[in-house]
Design goal:
- This protein is of the alpha/beta class.
- Helices cover 34% and strands 23% of the residues.
- The strands form 3 sheets. Strands 1, 4, 5 and 8 form a 4-stranded mixed beta sheet that branches. Strands 2-3 form a two-stranded parallel sheet.
- Helix 1 packs parallel to helix 5 and helix 3 packs parallel to helix 4.
- The N and C termini lie far apart (33 Å).
- Belongs to the isochorismatase family.
- Keywords: Hydrolase.
Length: 167
């Protein structure tokens, strides 16, 4: 990892989405739209659009939910949607390991969902604190260690793809 970990994230997300679509598994996309005008995640900022590999297919009934805080369970009806469709397990991918993905995973675990955190389809960036730079791979692995067996099962893209193939 340079200043972002994981290097194959986009490719892995593309493979996972394709596999979920072929297996007719439900997909819900979550986009962070900060309410803070100065945030890079504010909807008015260039670069806050979903990348092509992660965009929902409207023809596949893939909802795109917009949240304004780290957790996808606050301020939107994600839990209601999941319960109504009978979802018991979640597969988490995206940005960033130690913010949105981690917070959503912790809440999902607390709400009783079985969470699979796909370590090579999630990424983060270098962090800075007290004049020090914490490399993205360190942030990433510390988050994995914190979530593992407490809030989620840490898996790889390959493991999820193999699991889907048996459905």
């Amino acid at each position: 990892c340079r200043n972002r970990c994981t290097t194959n994230m986009e490719e892995n997300i593309t493979m996972l989405l394709s596999s979920f679509r072929k297996a007719h598994l439900p997909i819900i996309h979550i986009k962070h739209d900060s309410s803070a005008l100065t945030s890079a995640f504010h909807s008015s900022h260039a670069g806050n659009e979903l990348e092509d590999h992660a965009k929902p297919l409207t023809t596949n009934n893939e909802p795109l939910l917009h949240k304004s805080v780290n957790s996808a369970f606050i301020g939107i009806d994600l839990e209601k949607r999941l319960r109504e469709q009978g979802t018991l397990s979640l597969v988490i991918v995206g940005l960033t390991t130690n913010h949105c993905c981690e917070t959503t995973t912790q809440m999902a675990g607390n709400l009783g969902f079985d969470v699979f955190f796909v370590r090579d389809a999630i990424a983060t960036f270098d962090r800075h604190f007290e004049g020090e730079t914490i490399k993205a791979n360190e942030v990433h692995f510390n988050t994995l260690a914190s979530l593992n067996e407490e809030f989620a099962t840490i898996v790889t893209t390959k493991q999820i793809l193999e699991s889907i193939a048996t459905i």
